Amino acid sequence: MDFLGLRIDMFENIWSYRELFIRGIWVTLGLTAVGYVGGFILGLIVGMGKLSKRKWIHIPAKMYVDFFRGTPLLVQILLIHTALIPSMFGHSLGFFVSGSLALMLNSAAYNAEIIRAGIQSLDKGQMEAARSLGMPHNTAMKLIILPQAFRRMIPPLGNELIALLKDSSLVTVIAAGDLLYAGKVVAGAYSRFWEPYLTVAILYLLLTFICGKLINYVEDRFSNSYVPSPRRPLKRSVVGGGPR
After folding, report:
1. How does it sit in the membrane (predicted)?
2. Looking at residue 244, what is its pLDDT?
3. Phi first, then psi: what are they for 191, rounded to 5°?
4. What one-character DSSP code corresponds to residue 142?
5. How many Cα neighbours within 13 Å face the side chain of 187?
6. Would you place residue 243 in the very low, low, confident or very high pLDDT band (cuts 50, 70, 90)?
């Protein structure tokens, strides 16, 4: 049965490859998780470096952001997988190491700009007030500035997570066994492209939908208007068999 060029019975064949798609989903989620967590940590360091008044810290941080934001992620993946890692270790370390490293370095550049903008969006009087109380700069940044800025960073950081999840499909160019790779295998096996890639698109849509819901929860949880639910009063314990 055909519908808009789709063969409905083809989805039965795709179902027989369900284990390949499930494995691809886990690989996609693994690449995204490693790339995002590493990218956030590195992005925090680079973002703080861009705010530094010391040129030997500021200039390298700025060059890093300019390079990874100004070049395609696909080129970065190929450079890391075919040039950087083999030249350092003498051989490839596999698609997962190369792919997660490329995603991490790329995500760090965007996260650095998000963190820098979030910190600079706060009033300068916050830092001045903390310093006037004798608080060191690093302590004030850790206890006063970053907690407030983090609330403003959540929406763009969430968008970066969704973007990284979708960009992880580019890792298939180095033979990664991700979700898109599963679709390519099925498409090559049956010489049909509508159904396999439509299945991949629906699965990516489902993953981004779940991520969006999680991001909305975190955003509501850390918003200024969040009111925690009241705690139930603790029951008095009975000591020595006295009256309840």
Report:
1. Multi-pass membrane protein
2. 44
3. 55, 35
4. I
5. 14
6. very low
